[in-house]
Protein backbone atom coordinates (compact mmCIF):
# COMPACT_ATOMS: atom_id res chain seq x y z
CA UNK A 1 0.00 0.00 0.00
CA UNK A 2 1.26 3.49 -0.83
CA UNK A 3 2.90 5.52 1.94
CA UNK A 4 1.58 3.06 4.50
CA UNK A 5 3.16 1.05 7.29
CA UNK A 6 1.97 -2.19 5.70
CA UNK A 7 2.78 -4.46 8.63
CA UNK A 8 0.85 -2.23 11.02
CA UNK A 9 -2.04 -1.92 8.58
CA UNK A 10 -2.32 -5.67 8.21
CA UNK A 11 -2.82 -5.96 11.95
CA UNK A 12 -5.55 -3.32 12.05
CA UNK A 13 -6.89 -2.43 8.60
CA UNK A 14 -8.98 0.66 8.10
CA UNK A 15 -11.30 -0.14 5.22
CA UNK A 16 -13.72 2.22 3.48
CA UNK A 17 -16.48 0.73 1.38
CA UNK A 18 -18.84 3.59 0.53
CA UNK A 19 -19.00 7.36 0.18
CA UNK A 20 -21.75 9.97 -0.13
CA UNK A 21 -21.62 13.76 0.28
CA UNK A 22 -19.53 14.48 3.41
CA UNK A 23 -19.25 10.90 4.63
CA UNK A 24 -17.55 7.58 4.09
CA UNK A 25 -18.92 4.24 5.23
CA UNK A 26 -16.39 1.96 6.87
CA UNK A 27 -16.32 -1.80 6.42
CA UNK A 28 -17.71 -2.26 9.93
CA UNK A 29 -20.71 -0.15 8.99
CA UNK A 30 -19.85 3.16 10.64
CA UNK A 31 -20.45 6.56 9.04
CA UNK A 32 -17.17 8.46 8.94
CA UNK A 33 -17.11 12.25 8.50
CA UNK A 34 -14.59 13.15 5.80
CA UNK A 35 -12.23 15.79 7.18
CA UNK A 36 -9.76 15.42 4.32
CA UNK A 37 -11.80 15.36 1.09
CA UNK A 38 -10.34 11.91 0.52
CA UNK A 39 -6.79 13.00 -0.18
CA UNK A 40 -7.48 16.69 -0.84
CA UNK A 41 -9.43 15.84 -3.96
CA UNK A 42 -13.16 15.38 -3.36
CA UNK A 43 -13.84 19.12 -3.17
CA UNK A 44 -17.50 18.90 -4.23
CA UNK A 45 -18.27 16.03 -1.86
CA UNK A 46 -18.70 12.34 -2.60
CA UNK A 47 -20.92 10.51 -5.04
CA UNK A 48 -22.02 13.46 -7.15
CA UNK A 49 -24.55 12.05 -9.59
CA UNK A 50 -23.77 14.46 -12.43
CA UNK A 51 -20.18 13.24 -12.50
CA UNK A 52 -21.35 9.63 -12.48
CA UNK A 53 -23.72 10.36 -15.36
CA UNK A 54 -21.08 12.21 -17.39
CA UNK A 55 -18.63 9.32 -16.98
CA UNK A 56 -21.26 6.77 -17.96
CA UNK A 57 -22.35 8.79 -20.99
CA UNK A 58 -18.76 9.25 -22.17
CA UNK A 59 -17.99 5.55 -21.77
CA UNK A 60 -20.97 4.78 -23.96
CA UNK A 61 -20.08 7.46 -26.55
CA UNK A 62 -16.36 6.70 -26.78
CA UNK A 63 -14.38 4.80 -24.16
CA UNK A 64 -10.93 5.74 -25.34
CA UNK A 65 -9.32 7.71 -28.08
CA UNK A 66 -5.61 8.15 -28.69
CA UNK A 67 -4.23 11.67 -28.27
CA UNK A 68 -1.01 11.01 -30.16
CA UNK A 69 -1.68 12.69 -33.51
CA UNK A 70 -5.40 12.36 -32.87
CA UNK A 71 -7.82 14.41 -30.84
CA UNK A 72 -11.27 14.35 -29.36
CA UNK A 73 -13.43 17.21 -28.15
CA UNK A 74 -13.55 16.59 -24.36
CA UNK A 75 -10.06 17.70 -23.37
CA UNK A 76 -10.21 20.73 -25.68
CA UNK A 77 -13.51 21.80 -24.17
CA UNK A 78 -12.24 21.18 -20.66
CA UNK A 79 -9.07 23.18 -21.33
CA UNK A 80 -11.08 26.12 -22.70
CA UNK A 81 -13.33 26.10 -19.64
CA UNK A 82 -10.54 25.67 -17.09
CA UNK A 83 -8.41 28.56 -18.26
CA UNK A 84 -11.25 30.97 -17.56
CA UNK A 85 -10.27 30.42 -13.91
CA UNK A 86 -6.47 30.63 -14.20
CA UNK A 87 -4.63 33.94 -13.84
CA UNK A 88 -4.36 36.13 -16.97
CA UNK A 89 -1.77 34.94 -19.44
CA UNK A 90 -2.10 31.24 -18.52
CA UNK A 91 -4.33 29.84 -21.24
CA UNK A 92 -2.80 26.55 -22.33
CA UNK A 93 -3.16 23.11 -20.79
CA UNK A 94 -1.32 19.80 -21.00
CA UNK A 95 -3.28 16.92 -19.47
CA UNK A 96 -1.74 14.12 -17.42
CA UNK A 97 -3.11 11.46 -15.05
CA UNK A 98 -1.77 12.52 -11.67
CA UNK A 99 0.02 15.20 -9.72
CA UNK A 100 3.33 13.40 -10.07
CA UNK A 101 2.98 13.31 -13.85
CA UNK A 102 2.00 16.97 -13.88
CA UNK A 103 5.16 17.89 -11.98
CA UNK A 104 7.50 15.87 -14.16
CA UNK A 105 5.75 17.24 -17.25
CA UNK A 106 6.17 20.81 -16.02
CA UNK A 107 9.87 20.30 -15.30
CA UNK A 108 10.37 18.83 -18.78
CA UNK A 109 8.40 21.66 -20.37
CA UNK A 110 10.65 24.14 -18.55
CA UNK A 111 13.81 22.50 -19.84
CA UNK A 112 12.47 22.15 -23.37
CA UNK A 113 11.21 25.75 -23.36
CA UNK A 114 14.67 27.13 -22.73
CA UNK A 115 16.08 24.92 -25.46
CA UNK A 116 13.43 26.08 -27.88
CA UNK A 117 14.52 29.63 -27.04
CA UNK A 118 18.17 28.76 -27.74
CA UNK A 119 19.12 28.72 -24.05
CA UNK A 120 19.79 25.02 -23.64
CA UNK A 121 22.37 25.69 -20.91
CA UNK A 122 19.52 26.55 -18.55
CA UNK A 123 19.17 23.12 -16.94
CA UNK A 124 19.28 23.67 -13.18
CA UNK A 125 16.06 23.13 -11.25
CA UNK A 126 15.30 24.63 -7.87
CA UNK A 127 12.85 23.24 -5.35
CA UNK A 128 12.45 23.82 -1.64
CA UNK A 129 13.10 22.00 1.60
CA UNK A 130 9.99 20.15 2.81
CA UNK A 131 8.47 20.45 -0.65
CA UNK A 132 6.36 17.58 -1.98
CA UNK A 133 6.02 17.24 -5.71
CA UNK A 134 4.90 13.67 -6.15
CA UNK A 135 6.96 10.56 -6.67
CA UNK A 136 8.44 10.74 -10.17
CA UNK A 137 12.21 11.11 -10.33
CA UNK A 138 11.83 14.79 -11.20
CA UNK A 139 9.38 15.32 -8.38
CA UNK A 140 11.46 13.64 -5.69
CA UNK A 141 14.57 15.44 -6.94
CA UNK A 142 13.07 18.91 -6.51
CA UNK A 143 11.10 17.73 -3.47
CA UNK A 144 12.51 18.24 -0.03
CA UNK A 145 11.11 15.53 2.21
CA UNK A 146 13.90 13.23 3.27
CA UNK A 147 11.78 10.06 3.53
CA UNK A 148 10.70 10.44 -0.08
CA UNK A 149 14.29 10.68 -1.28
CA UNK A 150 16.61 8.68 0.93
CA UNK A 151 15.98 5.21 -0.51
CA UNK A 152 16.39 6.19 -4.15
CA UNK A 153 19.97 7.14 -4.80
CA UNK A 154 21.39 10.36 -6.13
CA UNK A 155 18.35 11.56 -8.12
CA UNK A 156 18.62 14.36 -10.72
CA UNK A 157 21.82 16.36 -10.96
CA UNK A 158 21.84 20.11 -10.75
CA UNK A 159 19.04 20.61 -8.25
CA UNK A 160 19.12 23.09 -5.37
CA UNK A 161 16.62 23.72 -2.59
CA UNK A 162 15.45 26.97 -1.07
CA UNK A 163 14.94 26.93 2.68
CA UNK A 164 11.40 26.15 3.83
CA UNK A 165 9.23 28.79 5.47
CA UNK A 166 8.06 26.97 8.60
CA UNK A 167 9.36 29.41 11.23
CA UNK A 168 8.80 29.08 14.99
CA UNK A 169 8.22 32.83 15.29
CA UNK A 170 5.10 32.43 13.15
CA UNK A 171 3.55 29.74 15.38
CA UNK A 172 -0.19 30.08 15.97
CA UNK A 173 -0.63 32.75 13.31
CA UNK A 174 -4.18 32.77 11.96
CA UNK A 175 -3.84 32.78 8.19
CA UNK A 176 -0.77 34.08 6.38
CA UNK A 177 2.26 34.55 8.65
CA UNK A 178 4.17 37.83 8.83
CA UNK A 179 7.77 36.67 9.16
CA UNK A 180 10.03 35.23 6.49
CA UNK A 181 9.57 36.90 3.09
CA UNK A 182 13.35 37.31 2.91
CA UNK A 183 13.73 33.52 2.65
CA UNK A 184 12.92 33.99 -1.03
CA UNK A 185 16.29 35.71 -1.33
CA UNK A 186 17.91 32.25 -1.11
CA UNK A 187 17.26 32.27 -4.82
CA UNK A 188 19.52 35.30 -5.26
CA UNK A 189 22.31 33.37 -3.58
CA UNK A 190 21.84 30.41 -5.93
CA UNK A 191 21.88 32.77 -8.87
CA UNK A 192 25.09 34.35 -7.57
CA UNK A 193 26.63 30.91 -7.15
CA UNK A 194 25.61 29.25 -10.42
CA UNK A 195 24.69 32.10 -12.75
CA UNK A 196 21.10 32.82 -13.73
CA UNK A 197 21.77 31.57 -17.24
CA UNK A 198 22.13 28.00 -15.90
CA UNK A 199 18.79 27.94 -14.07
CA UNK A 200 15.65 26.69 -15.83
CA UNK A 201 12.93 26.86 -13.19
CA UNK A 202 11.91 27.18 -9.58
CA UNK A 203 9.07 25.00 -8.31
CA UNK A 204 7.22 25.55 -5.03
CA UNK A 205 3.88 24.70 -3.54
CA UNK A 206 2.28 28.07 -2.73
CA UNK A 207 0.92 26.31 0.37
CA UNK A 208 2.87 23.15 1.10
CA UNK A 209 0.53 20.29 1.98
CA UNK A 210 2.25 16.98 2.54
CA UNK A 211 4.87 18.46 4.87
CA UNK A 212 2.04 19.40 7.21
CA UNK A 213 0.64 22.62 5.74
CA UNK A 214 3.28 25.34 5.45
CA UNK A 215 2.10 28.80 4.49
CA UNK A 216 3.98 31.40 2.50
CA UNK A 217 4.91 34.45 4.61
CA UNK A 218 3.43 37.78 3.50
CA UNK A 219 5.32 38.92 0.39
CA UNK A 220 7.31 35.69 -0.05
CA UNK A 221 5.72 34.50 -3.28
CA UNK A 222 5.77 38.04 -4.70
CA UNK A 223 9.50 38.14 -4.02
CA UNK A 224 10.12 34.79 -5.71
CA UNK A 225 8.14 36.06 -8.69
CA UNK A 226 10.14 39.27 -8.88
CA UNK A 227 13.51 37.49 -8.75
CA UNK A 228 12.58 34.75 -11.23
CA UNK A 229 11.18 37.29 -13.69
CA UNK A 230 14.24 39.52 -13.45
CA UNK A 231 16.49 36.57 -14.29
CA UNK A 232 14.46 34.78 -16.97
CA UNK A 233 13.82 31.78 -14.70
CA UNK A 234 10.45 30.07 -14.95
CA UNK A 235 8.30 29.93 -11.82
CA UNK A 236 6.12 26.84 -11.33
CA UNK A 237 3.43 26.66 -8.67
CA UNK A 238 2.56 23.12 -7.69
CA UNK A 239 -1.14 23.49 -6.96
CA UNK A 240 -2.05 19.83 -6.81
CA UNK A 241 -3.70 20.43 -3.44
CA UNK A 242 -4.34 24.18 -3.53
CA UNK A 243 -6.10 24.12 -6.90
CA UNK A 244 -9.86 24.07 -7.38
CA UNK A 245 -11.05 26.23 -4.53
CA UNK A 246 -9.12 24.86 -1.59
CA UNK A 247 -7.86 28.30 -0.52
CA UNK A 248 -10.92 30.31 -1.52
CA UNK A 249 -10.06 31.06 -5.15
CA UNK A 250 -9.75 28.70 -8.10
CA UNK A 251 -5.98 28.61 -7.54
CA UNK A 252 -3.61 29.85 -4.84
CA UNK A 253 -2.05 31.98 -7.60
CA UNK A 254 -5.33 33.94 -7.74
CA UNK A 255 -5.52 34.12 -3.96
CA UNK A 256 -1.99 35.47 -3.53
CA UNK A 257 -2.14 37.67 -6.61
CA UNK A 258 1.02 36.10 -8.03
CA UNK A 259 1.04 34.72 -11.56
CA UNK A 260 3.55 31.92 -12.09
CA UNK A 261 4.56 30.63 -15.52
CA UNK A 262 3.12 27.17 -14.98
CA UNK A 263 0.65 25.62 -12.54
CA UNK A 264 0.55 21.90 -11.88
CA UNK A 265 -2.77 20.42 -10.81
CA UNK A 266 -4.67 17.12 -10.33
CA UNK A 267 -6.96 15.88 -7.52
CA UNK A 268 -9.86 18.37 -7.49
CA UNK A 269 -9.77 18.54 -11.28
CA UNK A 270 -12.16 15.58 -11.44
CA UNK A 271 -13.33 15.70 -7.82
CA UNK A 272 -11.17 12.62 -7.34
CA UNK A 273 -13.58 10.46 -9.34
CA UNK A 274 -11.25 9.62 -12.24
CA UNK A 275 -7.48 10.09 -12.26
CA UNK A 276 -6.47 13.24 -14.14
CA UNK A 277 -3.82 15.92 -13.83
CA UNK A 278 -2.96 19.06 -15.75
CA UNK A 279 -0.15 21.49 -16.37
CA UNK A 280 -1.39 25.02 -17.00
CA UNK A 281 1.13 26.85 -19.14
CA UNK A 282 1.66 30.54 -19.84
CA UNK A 283 0.97 31.59 -23.41
CA UNK A 284 4.56 32.68 -24.00
CA UNK A 285 5.82 29.17 -23.18
CA UNK A 286 3.30 27.60 -25.53
CA UNK A 287 4.24 30.10 -28.23
CA UNK A 288 7.95 29.30 -27.88
CA UNK A 289 7.16 25.71 -28.86
CA UNK A 290 4.76 26.69 -31.62
CA UNK A 291 7.28 29.10 -33.15
CA UNK A 292 10.35 27.00 -32.31
CA UNK A 293 12.68 25.21 -34.71
CA UNK A 294 10.92 21.83 -34.65
CA UNK A 295 7.54 21.95 -36.34
CA UNK A 296 7.29 18.15 -36.70
CA UNK A 297 6.53 17.57 -33.01
CA UNK A 298 6.84 20.61 -30.76
CA UNK A 299 6.90 18.84 -27.39
CA UNK A 300 8.06 15.25 -27.49
CA UNK A 301 6.25 14.14 -24.35
CA UNK A 302 2.95 12.58 -23.35
CA UNK A 303 1.04 9.70 -21.86
CA UNK A 304 -1.26 7.12 -23.42
CA UNK A 305 -3.97 8.51 -21.17
CA UNK A 306 -3.24 12.24 -21.63
CA UNK A 307 -6.62 13.90 -22.02
CA UNK A 308 -8.49 10.64 -21.49
CA UNK A 309 -12.06 11.16 -22.72
CA UNK A 310 -13.62 9.71 -19.57
CA UNK A 311 -11.45 11.85 -17.30
CA UNK A 312 -12.25 14.92 -19.41
CA UNK A 313 -15.97 14.19 -19.06
CA UNK A 314 -15.55 13.88 -15.29
CA UNK A 315 -13.57 17.14 -15.30
CA UNK A 316 -16.28 19.00 -17.20
CA UNK A 317 -19.02 17.73 -14.87
CA UNK A 318 -16.87 18.64 -11.87
CA UNK A 319 -16.27 22.16 -13.15
CA UNK A 320 -20.02 22.54 -13.69
CA UNK A 321 -20.52 21.73 -10.01
CA UNK A 322 -17.80 24.09 -8.80
CA UNK A 323 -19.23 26.92 -10.88
CA UNK A 324 -22.88 26.26 -10.19
CA UNK A 325 -22.45 25.83 -6.44
CA UNK A 326 -19.94 28.65 -6.00
CA UNK A 327 -17.43 26.23 -4.50
CA UNK A 328 -14.37 28.24 -5.55
CA UNK A 329 -15.56 31.01 -3.20
CA UNK A 330 -16.84 28.82 -0.41
CA UNK A 331 -13.49 28.29 1.37
CA UNK A 332 -13.08 32.04 1.63
CA UNK A 333 -16.60 32.46 2.98
CA UNK A 334 -15.90 29.85 5.66
CA UNK A 335 -12.31 30.82 6.34
CA UNK A 336 -12.91 32.85 9.49
CA UNK A 337 -15.31 30.31 10.94
CA UNK A 338 -12.87 27.52 10.16
CA UNK A 339 -9.90 29.40 11.65
CA UNK A 340 -11.83 30.15 14.83
CA UNK A 341 -12.81 26.52 15.32
CA UNK A 342 -9.30 25.28 14.60
CA UNK A 343 -7.50 27.76 16.82
CA UNK A 344 -9.86 26.95 19.70
CA UNK A 345 -7.63 23.87 20.13
CA UNK A 346 -4.55 25.92 20.97
CA UNK A 347 -4.77 25.47 24.75
CA UNK A 348 -4.87 21.67 24.64
CA UNK A 349 -1.81 19.72 25.74
CA UNK A 350 1.18 19.07 23.43
CA UNK A 351 0.13 21.57 20.76
CA UNK A 352 3.11 23.13 19.03
CA UNK A 353 1.42 25.12 16.28
CA UNK A 354 -1.87 25.60 14.45
CA UNK A 355 -1.99 26.83 10.86
CA UNK A 356 -4.83 27.64 8.48
CA UNK A 357 -5.85 29.15 5.16
CA UNK A 358 -9.06 28.70 3.18
CA UNK A 359 -10.42 25.29 4.14
CA UNK A 360 -7.01 23.93 5.04
CA UNK A 361 -5.89 23.38 8.58
CA UNK A 362 -3.00 21.87 10.49
CA UNK A 363 -2.50 21.05 14.12
CA UNK A 364 1.09 20.22 14.96
CA UNK A 365 2.04 18.38 18.13
CA UNK A 366 5.21 18.30 20.15
CA UNK A 367 6.69 14.91 19.24
CA UNK A 368 7.02 12.11 21.75
CA UNK A 369 10.22 10.10 21.84
CA UNK A 370 9.15 8.37 18.62
CA UNK A 371 8.52 11.12 16.10
CA UNK A 372 5.12 10.77 14.46
CA UNK A 373 3.67 8.50 17.15
CA UNK A 374 1.46 11.17 18.70
CA UNK A 375 0.16 12.28 15.30
CA UNK A 376 -0.63 8.69 14.38
CA UNK A 377 -2.43 8.02 17.66
CA UNK A 378 -4.63 11.10 17.20
CA UNK A 379 -5.47 10.05 13.63
CA UNK A 380 -6.23 6.52 14.82
CA UNK A 381 -8.46 7.76 17.64
CA UNK A 382 -10.35 10.10 15.31
CA UNK A 383 -11.08 7.22 12.95
CA UNK A 384 -12.09 4.56 15.46
CA UNK A 385 -13.65 6.58 18.26
CA UNK A 386 -14.48 9.90 16.60
CA UNK A 387 -15.82 8.49 13.31
CA UNK A 388 -13.88 11.23 11.55
CA UNK A 389 -11.21 10.96 8.89
CA UNK A 390 -8.23 13.26 9.43
CA UNK A 391 -4.74 12.89 8.00
CA UNK A 392 -1.50 12.55 9.89
CA UNK A 393 1.81 13.53 8.39
CA UNK A 394 4.37 12.99 11.11
CA UNK A 395 3.12 14.80 14.19
CA UNK A 396 0.85 17.10 12.24
CA UNK A 397 -2.83 16.50 11.67
CA UNK A 398 -3.82 18.02 8.34
CA UNK A 399 -7.42 18.87 7.58
CA UNK A 400 -9.01 19.70 4.23
CA UNK A 401 -12.73 18.90 4.27
CA UNK A 402 -14.83 18.92 1.10
CA UNK A 403 -15.82 22.49 0.24
CA UNK A 404 -19.47 21.60 0.80
CA UNK A 405 -18.82 21.21 4.54
CA UNK A 406 -21.44 22.85 6.77
CA UNK A 407 -20.68 24.95 9.83
CA UNK A 408 -21.96 22.24 12.13
CA UNK A 409 -19.78 19.66 10.36
CA UNK A 410 -16.79 21.94 10.95
CA UNK A 411 -17.63 21.78 14.64
CA UNK A 412 -17.96 18.00 14.42
CA UNK A 413 -14.54 17.60 12.83
CA UNK A 414 -12.89 19.89 15.35
CA UNK A 415 -14.84 18.24 18.19
CA UNK A 416 -13.60 14.78 17.20
CA UNK A 417 -10.06 16.09 16.98
CA UNK A 418 -10.35 17.79 20.35
CA UNK A 419 -11.56 14.61 21.99
CA UNK A 420 -8.73 12.63 20.42
CA UNK A 421 -6.08 15.13 21.55
CA UNK A 422 -7.45 15.11 25.08
CA UNK A 423 -7.54 11.31 25.18
CA UNK A 424 -4.24 10.50 23.50
CA UNK A 425 -1.25 11.33 25.56
N1 LIG B 1 2.28 17.73 -5.76
C1 LIG B 1 1.67 18.02 -4.61
C2 LIG B 1 1.77 19.40 -4.06
C3 LIG B 1 0.90 17.06 -3.95
O1 LIG B 1 0.31 17.35 -2.78
C4 LIG B 1 0.79 15.78 -4.52
C5 LIG B 1 -0.05 14.68 -3.90
N2 LIG B 1 -0.38 14.82 -2.59
C6 LIG B 1 1.46 15.52 -5.71
C7 LIG B 1 2.20 16.51 -6.31
C8 LIG B 1 1.41 14.17 -6.34
O2 LIG B 1 0.19 13.86 -6.82
P1 LIG B 1 -0.21 12.34 -7.19
O3 LIG B 1 -0.25 11.61 -5.89
O4 LIG B 1 -1.53 12.48 -7.87
O5 LIG B 1 0.85 11.83 -8.10
Q: Could you say how many structural domains there are in total? A: 2
Q: Structural class of the secondary structure composition?
A: alpha/beta
- CATH topology of the largest domain: the name is Aspartate Aminotransferase, domain 2
Helix-strand pattern: HEEEHHHEHEHHEHEHEHEEHHHEEHEEEH
- Span between termini: 28 Å
* Low-confidence region ranges: none
Biggest beta-sheet profile: 7 strands, mixed
Helix content: 25-40%
Number of strands: 15
Mean pLDDT: 97
Please state the second-level CATH architecture of the largest domain: 3-Layer(aba) Sandwich
Q: What's the CATH class label of the largest domain?
A: Alpha Beta
Q: What do we call the CATH homologous superfamily of the largest domain?
A: Type I PLP-dependent aspartate aminotransferase-like (Major domain)
The shape, in one word, is globular
Lateral arrangement of strands in the main beta sheet:
4-10-9-8-7-5-6
Describe the overall structure.
The protein is of the alpha/beta class and 425 residues long. It has 2 domains: 6-48 and 326-423, Alpha-Beta Complex (Aspartate Aminotransferase, domain 1), CATH 3.90.1150; 52-324, 3-Layer(aba) Sandwich (Aspartate Aminotransferase, domain 2), CATH 3.40.640.10. It is 37% helix and 17% strand. It has 15 helices and 15 strands. Strands 4-10-9-8-7-5-6 form a 7-stranded mixed β-sheet, sandwiched between helices. Strand 7 (199-204), helix 9 and strand 8 form a beta-alpha-beta unit. It starts with 5 loop residues before the first helix and ends with a helix. The mean pLDDT is 97. 4'-deoxy-4'-aminopyridoxal-5'-phosphate (PMP) is lined by residues 98-100, 103, 132-134, 205, 209-210, 238, 240-241, 266. Belongs to the class-III pyridoxal-phosphate-dependent aminotransferase family. GO terms for molecular function: pyridoxal phosphate binding; transaminase activity. Keywords: Aminotransferase, Pyridoxal phosphate, Transferase. Its cofactor is pyridoxal 5'-phosphate. It comes from Saccharospirillum salsuginis.
Amino acid sequence: MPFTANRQFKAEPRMLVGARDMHYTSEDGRTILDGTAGLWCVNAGHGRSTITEAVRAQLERMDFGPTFQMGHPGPFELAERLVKHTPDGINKVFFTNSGSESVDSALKIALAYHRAKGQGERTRLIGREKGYHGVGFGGISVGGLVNNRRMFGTLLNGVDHLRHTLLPENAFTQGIPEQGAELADDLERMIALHGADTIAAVIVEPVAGSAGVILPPVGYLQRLREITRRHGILLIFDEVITGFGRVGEPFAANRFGVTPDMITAAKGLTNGAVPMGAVFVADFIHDAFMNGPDSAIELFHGYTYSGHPVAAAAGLATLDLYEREGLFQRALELEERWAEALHSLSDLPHIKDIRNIGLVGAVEFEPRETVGARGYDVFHHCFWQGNTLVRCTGDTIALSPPLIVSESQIDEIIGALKHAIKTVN
